[in-house]
Amino acid sequence: MDDPARTLVAWCPDWPVVAMGRSLDQRVAVMAANRVVAASPAARAAGVTRGQRRRAAQGVCTDLDVVARDEAVEARCFEPVLASLDDLTPRIEVLRPGTCAFAMGGPSRYFGGDEAVVKGVVQRMAEVVGGRTDVRIGVADGRFAAGLAARLADPVRSVAPGTVGRFLAPMSVTVLERPGLCDVLIRLGITTLGLFAALPSASVIARFGSAGIEAHRLASGLDPRPPEARPLRPDWSVSTDIDPPADRVDRVAFRARGLAEGLHDRLSAEGVACVRVGIEVETEHGETLSRLWRHEGALSAAAVADRVRWQLDGWLNGSAASRPSGAISRLALVPDEVVPAHGRQLGFWGGETEADGRAARVAARLQGQLGIDSVMVPELRGGRGTDQQIVLVSAATVELRGRSVEPESRDPAPWPGGLPCPSPAGVPVTPVGIELLDRAGRTVGVSGRGEVSDRPVRLVMGAKSAEIGAWAGPWPVEERWWDPDSYRRCARFQVLTTDGVAHLVALEGGRWWITATWD
Amino acid sequence: MTSSGSEAAAIIAQATRLVSPLVPAHEQTLPVLPVLEALLPGAAIRRGSTVEVQGPGATSLALALAAGPSAAGSWTALVGMPSVGLMAAGEAGLALNRLFVVGPPTPGSWASIVAALIGSVDVIVAAGGRRCGDGDLRRLTARLRERGSVLVRVGASGSASRSVGADVRLQVVASEWEGLGDGHGILRRRRVEVRADGRGASASPRSSELFLPGPTGAPQPVGLAPVAKLRGV
């Protein structure tokens, strides 16, 4: 009863790179929130690692092709791969784009053994993936062990039934992917899963709580949670009719968000959380499509809504063969596997707080109302200009809880030619064109050697004009001369008008601009 | 019968004690930077209040005002301020990891955006909303009181109606830059005089001089010795 089901995990390595249409021979890094999330083998060989910052990655590999992560594209590209497996088993679950899993029991009996199923999976997936990347298959008792087997596979690794404990024992505890727990375990001298599994579970739960016991069960080759004894489960699925039927992703995704929130409220009222959700749609012609998505942490409302969007994108924008023939008339979310919700411990010092949760919720709400780019959060970048030092990124693309916006080092090296403190409080979205005139009423110019033609006395902005009381400059900047697209050459001045307003003005491309104002 | 009545009264009294708020409303405040304490009654912003910031340097003053709560762990949202200098916000002391920039609001959505943020974000710094009617403003004020957020309106001329005016009004009445000469030097700091008035506890006018921004971008009290002299020692 306690034995985990025999599971197959199929993994396409470097999927984020492949999905962005890059070849694995190129040096490519996929970034999210300024960190490398995936790198091509060529880039890894050059020293790029996961979790590296962009600058560091570009430092070790100067010709690195940096692309931003797009999980929707990853999911959409993965959909044909999944569709190819549909005739082997109807119960495929997506762990994340690039990795899927299914229980071997049924297919194995039907096709006459594990080998036949594995052969079928390899053949079908290789056909669709078509040499863009390889396919690794791991088969073992339990999803965790199968996932690890897939990582070690070349290209197939099968762990014989009943030997999963021996397979896991020599592995490092870091494969549990629970950084806080692993850190403590390693300091306690418990470096392998075997050593961890040997601890009595009573001691583990006393020291590490429910999260610890889950990890302990994984390390012992068991399912992370003991089998549920509750015989009858109420139907928690929610659905909505879409009338008129929608054939655009955004329209259905909008409904999905509300549906996901409803589902989430309902589940949390029952004290359970959903770890596997089925997304089902019905078209106006009566076709039904469904797909399972799994998440090891419980799926939040936003996470469910995201997965619905990705899945719809995969179906509606996929190849002609897999695309439904009509518009979508019904959407249902089926919480396929639920676990008791233990809640999450909020941070006492730093980390996630209650306020972070509230802020993340309001951000999601406003994004639903006003569009995905309506709520932005700042991110530090290097640069000389007021518009380069900080950029705004959509709040949807970053993890708001426990986020840190810090310079790369505690004492960042200065940018030669950067603006000194204090920074201007007003930076117009687009620079404002002005005239800067000298005593004779001519436009002030700056020579190639950085000499000012005459002192500026008057600033003219449209119909308004102001006397200049004090000024300093020029501070010339010539940036990125090696790149014609981002090449920039300008001379900057600080000017203070007699009515007390200070501006940062720049002469660029033969014109004067106000690039910032100290408001 | 009487004994059970008095028992019930005792129980009710006990229940009342249990559910009464531990902190009275006027003590629920958000901390501000020390340099701004002289301008606010109780040396802090009262939760649920509206602050209006006006005059040259209003943006800097609003950022400085939000910096205190932000450094203490609150989230801040900037609404309708697409051209705010975020480096200046960081230098003023705002925690950039707890900051939203929301916008651009369409003319009709200003009040609904602010209303959505109230209660979820402690400090809302908002510009615009001039077309927001008195009725909407009154509803926002009520919601602020109920949920305990603070609304800082930048450059708003304020409503004519007294019932929806700001609780505190901060106005930069004089400002003077230091450090920039005729063809030399650099903008180092700005000496401003801020006058505060308002309603209730802040009805008596207060006034304070400070450097906004100071040489590091953060507001500084005027009493400090100039940086150049310190370097020379």
Order the strands across the largest sheet of chain A as they lie in space: 8-7-1-6-5-11-10-12-9
Order of helices and strands of chain B: HEEEHEHEHEHEEEEEH
Total number of helical segments of chain A? 14
CATH secondary-structure class of the domain at 23-173 in chain B: Alpha Beta
Provide the helix percentage of chain A. 25-40%
CATH level-4 homologous superfamily of the domain at 23-173 in chain B: P-loop containing nucleotide triphosphate hydrolases
- The helix count of chain B comes to 6
Mind explaining what this structure looks like?
The complex is a heterodimer of chains A (519) and B (233). Chain A is α+β, with helices and mostly antiparallel strands and 519 residues long. Helix content of chain A is 30%, strand content 27%. Chain A contains 14 helices and 20 strands. The C terminus of chain B is likely disordered. In chain B, strands 5-4-6-7-3-8-9-10-11 form a nine-stranded mixed sheet, with helices on both faces. A two-stranded antiparallel ribbon of chain B has the order 1-2. By secondary structure, chain B is of the alpha/beta class. In chain B, strand 6, helix 5 and strand 7 form a beta-alpha-beta unit. Classes of the chains: A alpha+beta (519), B alpha/beta (233). The interface between A and B is large, with 49 and 57 residues.
